[in-house]
Design a protein that fits this description.
It is a single chain. This protein is an alpha/beta fold. The protein contains 10 helices and 8 strands. 40% of the residues lie in helices and 16% in strands. The strands form 2 sheets. A 5-stranded mixed β-sheet has the order 4-5-6-7-8, covered by helices on one side. Strands 1-2-3 form a 3-stranded parallel β-sheet. The protein binds zinc ion (ZN).
Length: 275
């Protein structure tokens, strides 16, 4: 919820995924800051109108389309314009927000090609974007997972008191370390199965079968992690579209398809009523 009289003059996109950048058009007068790599990556993301078209065509009797409806169909993307960053940087940029210094640090490729984290030294806060997920198995589209671990180490090196993940509740350094342990274990298992010559689909199935962390939901993302890591291990150069990665994951983990689909609500109306 926005404070009633606040004027927002600067918006930072930690990465280009739609759930972190579609809101840019709601701030027409703001400077939108992100990494140069994120600006480039934005072109590979589905635009809001493409998401809307995709969802409008989804049929609930097809498992993957049902999955999309369950996760994205609750939002109404009509009226949102794809609004790219207006100011980009590489490596580091310091912004001044009133009397507060805000450091932007490029840590990608990790979750996506151009991830950045936001460090507010005076408050001991680091906003991690989707480098860190809490409560669910993480999904990482670009990788490699070693890049995610390096990015997490950069977060810890800033000695934060509070870490704001891209999804989930606020955490501290101890939870970042335990998240790194999980990501490291998944990476090591993928590497050993790859070394044994298992095709990526079989590796994904092994990960799903061996998953013991009942506290982490969205386990189908383990398949995405396998696809991402295999692309690096096999030195694949062609981009793997995000929707294809997700449809492969859903095919390999059919149990993730929900039986009921939530009611659609209007994101813009919802947002507007609270501003
Ligand atoms: Zn993301």
């Amino acid at each position: 919820m926005l404070p009633p009289s606040a004027a927002i003059s600067t918006v930072v996109n930690t990465h280009a995924n739609g759930d972190h950048s579609y809101g840019n058009s709601l701030f027409p007068d703001a400077e939108i800051v992100s990494t140069a790599a994120n600006l480039e990556h934005l072109c590979a993301e589905p635009a809001p109108e493409q998401m809307q078209t995709l969802l409008d065509r989804c049929q609930a009797d097809d498992p993957f389309q049902r999955y999309l409806l369950a996760h994205f169909g609750r939002y109404d993307y009509r009226g949102l314009r794809l609004t790219p960053p207006t100011r980009t940087f590489s490596e580091r940029l310091t912004l001044q927000v009133g009397s507060t210094s805000v450091e932007l640090i490029e840590v990608g490729p990790a979750h996506t090609v151009g991830d950045l984290i936001v460090h507010i030294p005076d408050s001991g806060v680091v906003c991690a974007g989707d480098v860190v997920f809490v409560g669910d198995v993480p999904v990482h589209w670009a990788g490699p997972l070693g890049g995610v671990l390096d990015a997490c180490q950069q977060i810890l090196d800033l000695a934060p008191q509070v870490v704001v993940p891209g999804h989930g509740p606020l955490i501290g350094p101890a939870e970042v370390r335990s998240y790194m342990e999980f990501v490291g274990e998944v990476r090591d298992r993928i590497h050993s199965l790859h070394a044994r010559g298992l095709p990526v689909q079989e590796t994904a199935q092994v990960l799903l079968r061996e998953h013991r962390r009942a506290d982490l939901g969205l386990t189908e993302r383990l398949a995405v992690l396998a696809i991402t890591e295999y692309r690096h291990l096999d030195q694949a150069t062609a981009p793997f579209p995000l929707v294809d990665m997700l449809s492969t994951a859903v095919r390999l983990a059919p149990g993730c398809v929900p039986t009921s689909i939530p009611e659609r609500h209007t994101l813009l109306t919802d947002f507007g009523s609270r501003t």
